[in-house]
Write a structure and sequence with these properties.
Protein name: Peptidase inhibitor family I36 protein
CATH architecture: Sandwich
Largest sheet: 4 strands, antiparallel
Strand order of the largest sheet: 2-1-3-6
CATH class: Mainly Beta
Pfam families: Inhibitor_I36 (PF03995)
Keywords: Signal
Order of helices and strands: HHEEEEEEHE
Number of helices: 3
CATH topology: Gamma-B Crystallin, domain 1
Organism: Streptomyces genisteinicus
CATH superfamily: Crystallins
Number of domains: 1
Structural class: alpha+beta
Length: 152
Amino acid sequence: MRFMRHALTTGLAALAVATLTVPVAGAGSAAAAAPASASAARSAAAAAPDGFLYAWEHAHAGGAHCKWNGNNANWAGCSDKVSDVWNNGFPGRKEDVRLYNGREWTESWVCLHQGHSIPDLNASGLKWFGSGHGQGTSVNDSISSHAWVDAC
């Protein structure tokens, strides 16, 4: 079942990549630099995950960006200003990412499954759940930390 879900997710992600991404407009963050274009990165990742969580300042891979391949308790330069996220982690253990409203993995949270992306957090209407500050409010421009987890 997990393999079928992954295969379907990968196929849908490839279709979304073809229609929803634009080149990264600017570089610069506290994390490592992302590939030259979001479209190229997402297309390549549809075939081969690279183990990173990507975040962009503006919807559809616009503006400044950050990426991480491990847990991060303080998004620093990307904290509270991300409108596009993409989990391009490896399938298997620690494949999902729990995004937190607070630093140090605190407050309300949402989950981003392996291979999934939300290219426009504002338009998606995604709200924080789980107890804590932020519960029921928009995830857009309010992520402060994340942790890789086995399942959400």
